[in-house]
Amino acid sequence: MSMKALYLTIPLAPLFGAIMAGLFGKYIKRAGAHWVTILGVAVSFICSVIAFKHVVIDGSAVFNETIYQWMVSDGIKFQVGFLVDKLTAIMLIVVTFVSLMVHIYTVGYMKDDPGYQRFFSYIALFTFSMLMLVMANNFMQLFFGWEAVGLVSYLLIGFWYKKPTAIFANLKAFLVNRVGDFGFILGIAAILLYVNPSSLDYADVFKFAHDGGFKGQTIEIFPGFQWSVITVICILLFIGAMGKSAQVPLHVWLPDSMEGPTPISALIHAATMVTAGIFMVSRMSPLFELSDVALNFVMVIGGITALFMGFLGLIQTDIKKVVAYSTLSQLGYMTVALGVSAYSAAMFHLMTHAFFKALLFLGAGSVIIAMHHEQDMRKMGGLKKYLPITYITALIGSLALIGFPGFSGFYSKDAIIEATKHSELAASGFAYFCVVVGVFFTAVYSFRMFFMVFHGKERMDEHTRSHLHETPAVVTGPLILLAIPSVIIGAIVIQAMLFGDGSSSGVILDGAIHVAKNHIPEHGMFGEWHGVFGFTWHGMMQLPFLLAMAGVATAYYFTLHRPDMAELLKRKLSVVVTVLNNNYYFDKFNQLVFAGGCRKIGRLFWKVGDTRIIDGLAINGSAKTIGWFSGVVRHLQTGYLYHYAIAIILGLLGMLTWLVTR
């Protein structure tokens, strides 16, 4: 098989499975639906491993070719093309492996659901959409994948369409992402407008940027204010990333999306849709490196998200909501890394986070299955002895999340903190404060959840307790397989990811990302490399490790040792708790200003524009005018012959008078 055929197989295998399960599900039955989609994603994963070996390990040439030309308009080519370089290869491995684990897990989680075939069709289609986004070599295909993952996420979040809360959640996700996507498409339009000659191909745009094509180009958005074109383009593209990767203030859709089945939480919020924005900015590094303003903007947004979304995880009682807010916070860490030009660290954390966050989501799902679909942690406790495999894997996921030494999250998160510390950009001080303080709160909410669920007093009812047992192998198997990289992948790849050339990126991403020389500190972004043990020891001597351990101790004290103190603290800080319970009033603001404002504008157009102007004046008004005029004119139609004779005579006299006197 040629490499081109292999690369085509990667996205098309899941698409084939989605079509078979979706269109022929009632013929192939439930078993056929899960087998065809699992095999499709498994084939895609195997091909991705081969591609990774070919591009990264063997060092073969980058594949950048057009697969199909759709059309040419005004000299601009709209094409389907693949770019498979080291950055793509990493994403292919992550997306297909996590997707495969989710597909297998779904067999157990959704076994009694009447929409079984439909669900498998959706998650396979989602995998295809993400792979098309990742493999794109031009902005048209990128936008196709971008919108496709948004569409399928809408279908997945609202999968249980008879639940009003699920319908509200998927509509909310769809609309919030439309806001980000509007900025994204404006950024693409600006690229088309200012790149000469106009092109949607990455290589052409990056070459134009490298040759200084954007230098000196300005745009007047507001009268009297000149903006650098490249800054505007980067900020607009990043607004798209803010929607997909759920950054403040476009984060509000992600917690509500927990209304969907748990497997899609692991798929969408660990390895695919929410990481699309991080991947896109990394891919666009040749553009972002030209604008310090854009990088500072990215850094500030990331810092705010990392810290303030972590606060919200402290007061959640829904097990999935805790993991959801954790995802928001960790995406903030990745965004901060992008802002300090540490794209390799962002991708490193994206990879490790995909494994341990999928593990935590699926672990939460295992608990939910055992608890007969109860998600309130206040009704759990003491599950350690009933769910031993879930307990151990949840502990591994939690330790990786807080960055405990030796686990994958430790290496990637510490790399981000180090890069932020060494950055010389204006906003780096603020971002560093956010990511360091965020470590403490990450440990608090992570182990608060862990202790509430698996330790302490058993708070479930007797019926639930009597039926508690470990979930089946089809559920625990993916947990074990995800736990392995959650422990070891960080230590294995850190040198290759970060320290390959001693400065901006490791050998894995060499050539796939671009970092300007003025953004590389004198001694490198991540300090000096003294081996895995040296990096681990150095990290254990730093403030973030101490804060993480303090966070675990705090969670233990308030959750298991003195839960009464937690209630007392909650009463003392009732104002803060109220603000957190209301999500900083983002939802209420959006409902009042945007949703309420749109409804009022719509009502105005309805009452005034439609009812009064269109119906009242244009349609009913014209009908009434014609009716009135007809009522006047019909009086001339008397039916008497002499009246008509007089009218004819008067008409003739008038014509004769006009002919004689002209």
UniProtKB/TrEMBL annotation:
Record InterPro entries: NADHpl_OxRdtase_5_subgr (IPR018393), ND/Mrp_TM (IPR001750), NU5C-like (IPR003945), Proton_antipo_N (IPR001516)
Pfam families per the UniProt record, alphabetical: Proton_antipo_M (PF00361), Proton_antipo_N (PF00662)
Domain (NADH-Ubiquinone oxidoreductase (complex I) chain 5 N-terminal) ranges: 70-120
Uppermost EC category: oxidoreductase
Subcellular location: Membrane
Any one GO CC term of the record: membrane
GO biological-process terms attached to the record: ATP synthesis coupled electron transport; electron transport coupled proton transport
Ranges of residues in domain NADH:quinone oxidoreductase/Mrp antiporter transmembrane: 136-425
Gene3D superfamilies listed in its UniProt record: 1.20.5.2700
Topological type in the membrane: Multi-pass membrane protein
Chief localisation class: membrane
Record's keyword terms, sorted: Membrane, Oxidoreductase, Transmembrane, Transmembrane helix, Ubiquinone
GO MF assignments: NADH dehydrogenase (ubiquinone) activity; NADH dehydrogenase activity
Transmembrane segments: 6-25, 32-52, 87-107, 119-136, 142-161, 173-195, 224-243, 264-281, 293-315, 322-344, 350-370, 391-410, 430-454, 475-499, 541-560, 641-660
EC number from the UniProt entry: 1.6.5.3
NCBIfam families in UniProt: NDH_I_L (TIGR01974), PRK06590.1 (NF005141)
Protein name: NADH-ubiquinone oxidoreductase chain L
